[in-house]
Amino acid sequence: MTVRVGVNGFGRIGRNFFRAVRAGGHDIEIVAFNDLGDVATMAHLLKYDSILGRLDADVQVTDEGISVDGKVIKALAERDPGKLPWKDLGVDVVVESTGFFTDATKARAHVDEGGAKKVIISAPAKNEDLTVVIGANEDKFDGSQTIISNASCTTNCLAPLAKVLHDSFGIEQGLMTTIHAYTQDQNLQDAPHSDLRRARAAALNIVPTSTGAAKAIGLVLPELKGKLDGYALRVPIPTGSATDLTVTLKREVTVDEVNAAYKAAAEGALAGILKYSTDPIVSADIVTDAHSCIYDAPLTKVIGNQVKVVGWYDNEWGYSNRLADLVKLVASKI
C-alpha cells in the first residue's frame, strides 16, 4: 500500500525527507507540502543542495506547485495547520517538520481540523502520544497513537549506542557529548540569541550548548530513565556529527567484548540502523550514510567497568531516512 503524505515545513528536514523517500524507493507518495516560502525558491533549494548536491531529476515550478520528473507536488502556504486541506488531498500521514508545532496539542490540528489520520513530528515533542526511535522501541506503536514524535537525530544515534551496552552488560549510569554540526538555530555572525553561546558565529566557534537527547532516552528505553545526561558541542561543519558515550557498566569488560556486542547487533537485530566500522573515518566519511549510528570500533576505550564508545551520524540524512521508516510503520497500522 502506498501511503499519501503531506509535509508541513519544506526546510532542511522536509527536503531531506523528500530525497530520502525518492532514493529509498519507499511506498510513500508526497502529495503536498506547506511552506510560507516562495514556491520558486523551494523548487530551487530542492534541486540544488550544498550538501547533497544536485537532485537527479527534472524540477519545474507549475501553477499547482513543484513538478519532479512530471509528478506534481501541490504547494500550500498556510500559517494555521488546522486550515490545511489534508482530507481533501487524501493525506494519510502528515510529517510536521516546521519546528513550530512540536507540542502535540498544536500539531493535532492536522488531524482534528485538517483531516489527516496521523501526524509524525520530526523533532522532540511535548504531549505526544508516543516517541519512537526505530531500532529501540518501534514495537510500542500499535496503531492507537495519533501524534508520534521521531525524537531527535542525536537520540536516534544514542538509543542504539546505549541499547547494545545495556542489553549486553547493563548500564549503571553515564554521560554523553554530541559533537554536532551547526544548525539553522545558530547565527552566521555574532547576533542576539536566547542562548548566549549560540549567539556566537557558528562557523567560527566550538559552541557548547544543551541537548535533550540523553534525558529523552528514557522515553524510548525506560530502563535507562534518569541514568544518562550530557550536552552538545556544536562545531563548524554543516552536517556529520558524533555521539561520545561514557558509561559505568554492571561488570568489568574488555574492548573486544564491547566491540563484539556491537558487531553482532549491527549484523543482526539492528541491521540497517547500526553500522559497524573498523576504518579510521572522519566526519566527511559518514555524510549521506543512512544509518542512525555508525559505530567506530577503534575508538572504544575500557577501564574496568567504565566504557567509552563513539557513534557517528549524519544528523540530516540518517534522521530523514528513519523518518521515512517511521512513516511506513505508522501507515501499516492505519
From TrEMBL:
Lineage per the UniProt record: Bacteria, Bacillati, Actinomycetota, Actinomycetes, Pseudonocardiales
Family, as annotated: Belongs to the glyceraldehyde-3-phosphate dehydrogenase family.
InterPro entries per the UniProt record, alphabetical: GlycerAld/Erythrose_P_DH (IPR020831), GlycerAld_3-P_DH_AS (IPR020830), GlycerAld_3-P_DH_cat (IPR020829), GlycerAld_3-P_DH_NAD(P)-bd (IPR020828), Glyceraldehyde-3-P_DH_1 (IPR006424), NAD(P)-bd_dom_sf (IPR036291)
Organism listed in the record: Lentzea aerocolonigenes
Chain ranges of the Glyceraldehyde 3-phosphate dehydrogenase NAD(P) binding domain: 3-153
Entry's Gene Ontology molecular function annotations: glyceraldehyde-3-phosphate dehydrogenase (NAD+) (phosphorylating) activity; NAD binding; NADP binding
Main localization (coarse): cytoplasm
NCBIfam families: GAPDH-I
Residues the record lists as binding NAD(+): 12-13, 35, 79, 122, 315
Keyword match Nucleotide-binding: yes
Superkingdom, taxonomy of origin: Bacteria
Protein's UniProt name: Glyceraldehyde-3-phosphate dehydrogenase
Residues binding D-glyceraldehyde 3-phosphate: 152-154, 183, 211-212, 234
Localization (cell): Cytoplasm
This protein's UniProt keywords: NAD, Nucleotide-binding, Oxidoreductase
Chain positions of site Activates thiol group during catalysis: 180
GO biological process assignments: glucose metabolic process
Residues at the catalytic site: 153
